[in-house]
């Protein structure tokens, strides 16, 4: 069984006694809507609050978790490096903005008051990626480049068998847009509606209060694990679990530690999110195992032509002094070849369009 989309929740978090099941103990996972009675006046209040909240959002029309209105960003990548740089400093082949820069690029500014106070929202570790498009790319490298892009599956293979997000031809430039990644986001939004704010990464922290001295946990009623326990109470040989006055559910530590790994596994395997907190684009030689191999091959190619020229000129000389001068001259030219190959600066640039939202704020 798998997660399936159904109608949206009635606007209230699932209660522990009638919440939907997210773990089928036989190995599957499903989510179905709460059977609680509709509360029109609560829905109206929530809708009004959401409308007011939306009116303060940047551009007045942006939400950080709406399936029909993803955030859109255009990222411009430039890598400029010599072959010597790439051989000696691996990071020179990587476009990697700082954490602060990535938050400025990808998080959404949200106004919190009419005075203009704003905050950045969106968890970069739980990005729901709609699609990522390589809009343009250019390279003046004389070898094919393999690109590895955060958020894009590496499914393009080169001569070496190394997987890449894409491979760019030598000395090429293209402005033809190419979709690099397109994810099915329906399950992620369905999960977000039923369990707002929860991700596979924060299941052990959000809404969980361990009381280790007494070997029990207090868990928020809207936590996915409460839903799992409630729906599988008969298999776990438990009666109905009850909610405490504070809106928390009390369960034993052993039960919590038994159920949690299964819940986390199901969320990780079926709810597709991308970690963009360290997003980067890396270039690598597609048909070579390292930049050092590229350097060795390029120098060998250029020296081969020079040595052929030397052999031709040596045939015409008989004086030992002239031969030695010629060899010395060609040795100097070989050193210049090495210097030119090492020091020539190469450029790679790309424009990437991203459509995404956040599973959690």
Description of the structure:
This protein is α+β, with helices and mostly antiparallel strands. The chain is built from 8 helices and 16 strands. The strands form 5 sheets. Strands 1, 5, 10, 11 and 16 form a 5-stranded antiparallel sheet that branches. A 4-stranded antiparallel sheet has the order 2-15-6-9, with no helix packed on it.
Overall pLDDT level = 80
Largest sheet: 5 strands, antiparallel
| Helix/strand class | alpha+beta
* Percent helix: 25-40%
Radius of gyration: 29 Å
**Count of DSSP strands:** 16
H/E series = HEHEHEEEEEEEEEHEEHEHEHHE
The coarse overall form would be elongated
Task: Compute the separation of the termini in Å.
Answer: 29 Å
Low-confidence stretches: 1-39, 41-46, 48-62
Tally of contiguous helical segments: 8
Strand content: 15-25%
Would you spell out the secondary-structure blueprint of this structure?
Elements: H1 40-55, E1 71-82, H2 83-88, E2 94-95, H3 99-106, E3 108-111, E4 118-121, E5 127-139, E6 145-149, E7 156-157, E8 163-164, E9 166-168, E10 172-174, E11 178-182, H4 186-194, E12 208-211, E13 216-220, H5 224-231, E14 248-252, H6 253-270, E15 281-285, H7 291-315, H8 320-343, E16 345-358
Helix pairs in contact: 5-6, 7-8
Question: Briefly, what is this?
Answer:
This protein is of the alpha+beta class.
Features:
about 350 residues, alpha+beta, five-stranded antiparallel sheet, four-stranded antiparallel sheet, about 25% strand, disordered N terminus
